[in-house]
Design goal:
The chain has seven helices and seven strands. By secondary structure, the chain is of the alpha+beta class. The strands form two sheets. Strands 1, 2, 3, 4 and 7 form a five-stranded mixed sheet that branches. It has a two-stranded antiparallel ribbon with strand order 5-6. Helix 4 packs across helix 5 and helix 6 runs antiparallel to helix 7. InterPro entries: MeTrfase_RsmB-F_NOP2_cat, MeTrfase_RsmB-F_NOP2_dom, RCMT, SAM-dependent_MTases_sf.
Length: 184
């Protein structure tokens, strides 16, 4: 992650998140592939891997992506994403959430499948229960929960397509992918 993106993420947290949602969130600008296990407290119950990607889920806001992206870009990106996810699995936490703003299987499902095949003590789990929990806590509207449930893939990952919909207000989102991995 670049310093600019980290700054933007911190600003979004400050604007949109409540204290309850941001309590215990730590952000760092480091090379995650070389982060020593001792640098991540055992008390952390989740590591987020927000992997660099092609950004195809943001084409609506960034149409120039279609002009700069080439098919040969995916192989090195895939390797980098696998390295980041592998490193996260070695940190000692029970859960890892893998995320991209890409809609490409090479950067999403293929990364998760490859890394899980190399790490038999990990499995992918469905995000269905997390979505339902957020709805029950009123952190998601019924419409939002329904949209997320419809966006679940058969393996339990979430592939959200770019969308704008209206029910008393307009909601707009980029496309992105989320997969939850748990240690067995």
């Amino acid at each position: 992650m670049s310093p600019e993106r980290l700054k933007a993420m911190r600003e979004r947290f400050a604007i949109t998140a409540t204290q309850h949602l941001t309590q215990g969130i730590e952000t760092r600008l480091v090379d995650a592939t070389t982060l020593p296990r001792t640098d991540v407290p055992a008390s952390y119950d989740l590591v987020l891997v927000d992997a660099p990607c092609s950004g195809t889920g943001t084409l609506g806001r960034n149409p120039e992506i279609r002009h700069r992206l080439c098919p040969e870009d995916f192989a090195p990106q895939h390797q980098r994403q696998c390295a980041l996810l592998r490193a996260a699995l070695q940190l000692g936490q029970k859960r890892v959430l893998y995320s991209t703003c890409s809609l490409e299987p090479e950067e999403n499902q293929h990364v998760v499948a490859q890394v899980i095949s190399e790490n038999p003590d990990w499995q992918q789990v469905s995000l269905r229960d997390q979505i339902e929990s957020l709805r029950e806590q009123n952190r998601l509207t019924p419409l939002g929960a329904e949209y997320l449930h419809r966006s679940l893939l058969p393996d339990g990952a979430l592939q959200l397509m770019p969308a704008v919909f209206d029910e008393n207000h307009i909601v707009s989102t980029d496309g992105f992918y989320l997969a939850m991995l748990e240690r067995l």
